[in-house]
Write a structure and sequence with these properties.
Helices cover 31% and strands 25% of the residues. The chain has 212 residues and is α/β, with parallel strands linked by helices. The chain has one domain (2-211): NAD(P)-binding Rossmann-like Domain (Rossmann fold, 3-Layer(aba) Sandwich). Strands 3-2-1-4-5-8-12-10 form an eight-stranded mixed sheet, covered by helices on one side. A two-stranded antiparallel ribbon has the order 6-7. Strands 9-11 form a two-stranded parallel ribbon. 46% of the residues are buried. Bound molecules: NADP nicotinamide-adenine-dinucleotide phosphate (NAP). NADP nicotinamide-adenine-dinucleotide phosphate binds at residues 6-7, 9-13, 30-33, 49-52, 70-72, 74, 104, 106-107, 131, 135, 155, 157, 159.
Amino acid sequence: MKVLLLGASGRIGRRIATELLERGHAVTGVSRSGEVDGIDDPDFEAVAGDATDADGVADLAAGHDAVASALGPSKDEDPDVLPEMAEAVVEGLREAGVDRLVWTGGAGGLHVDEDTLLIETDDFPEAFEPVASAALDALEAFREAEDVRWSYVAPAAMIEPGERTGEYRTAEGELVVDEDGESYVSMEDFAIAFVDELEDGEAIHSRLGVGY
Ligand SMILES: NC(=O)c1ccc[n+]([C@@H]2O[C@H](COP(=O)([O-])OP(=O)(O)OC[C@H]3O[C@@H](n4cnc5c(N)ncnc54)[C@H](OP(=O)(O)O)[C@@H]3O)[C@@H](O)[C@H]2O)c1
């Protein structure tokens, strides 16, 4: 597959790029600067682009089989740029005639029980509320896009650089928690789950929680 990866310079994005390349996909990696450090592969091309610009996304997406995203707001940026990017990306895909999108979402929008999202729980850290809420608003942009085959792949509550074990579990719409009650996944294993979903499309028009 030829994949346009938005957010390729980010912590999760670089690992998704590596996983895609290991599996033989060709990757066009987008960052605002056009630089993506640490990836040296003949099937990887780093390009500059702005994910808030729908026409720009359309130009970049043209000729690709799928668009993947590990976009996130920069530290000094209003998290509301996330739904703005989601809308621009959907519009850009439509303009380019690409119909497959896999998006890195947030754990806050996953269910901890039938009636409660993680973000609604008493213990949810206040500091993460703005970005978690913006990630949920991004999900709304996809829910209105039935014509795009989108998947919203959301990590466990805690995700960090770690080991590529090849082990993970998924749950549609739900936070994945291990037998000790911990919700955790390494960025490397999350990238495996993300690329599996890109290849297999088991959770089209749905949220997929990933953890151990
Ligand atoms: N437990 C959880 O739910 C959880 C935990 C961690 C992360 N996440 C989510 O996962 C996503 C990725 O996280 P991360 O830690 O990998 O983020 P990160 O390291 O901050 O990377 C963000 C990426 O987005 C790119 N970007 C930002 N604005 C852009 C724009 N306007 N146009 C093009 N590219 C743009 C950045 O590129 P440049 O700055 O190089 O241009 C960078 O590649 C985020 O949405 C985050 O909320 C969820």
